[in-house]
Design a protein that fits this description.
2 domains; 4 helices; 82% helix
């Protein structure tokens, strides 16, 4: 089933209402929204699915919303740091490839 929301604000309001009034319905709706993004992931999306799983585990394990938020923030910060390092390494590798390619062009 495809999720075609009216607006992001509408989804937020719906989820906020369900979270306070019907946690089981909240969980069902949350999964319905996330499923299209997580079903049959490509190789590059596998880490996104793993990240979502880690977030879900922390949400369930948290004593309260604030503790859950702090745990999830740590996970996301770590993921962002790793992504930043990977992008920096990629940039360096591309710079190296470009430097190596320039002498080859002049030799022709």
């Amino acid at each position: 089933m495809s999720v075609e929301p009216k607006s992001y604000q509408g989804i937020f309001e719906e989820l906020a209402h369900l979270a306070t009034t019907d946690p089981a319905a909240f969980e069902q709706r949350r999964r319905q929204i996330l499923e299209p993004f997580m079903s049959r992931p490509t190789e590059g999306e596998v880490s996104a699915v793993a990240l979502q799983c880690a977030i879900d585990v922390e949400r369930v394990r948290a004593r309260n919303a604030a503790a859950g938020y702090q745990s999830i923030e740590r996970i996301l910060r770590g993921s962002l740091v790793a992504l930043t390092a990977a992008l920096r390494d990629l940039g360096k590798a591309l710079d190296d490839m470009e430097r190596e390619a320039k002498p080859a062009k002049h030799a022709s």
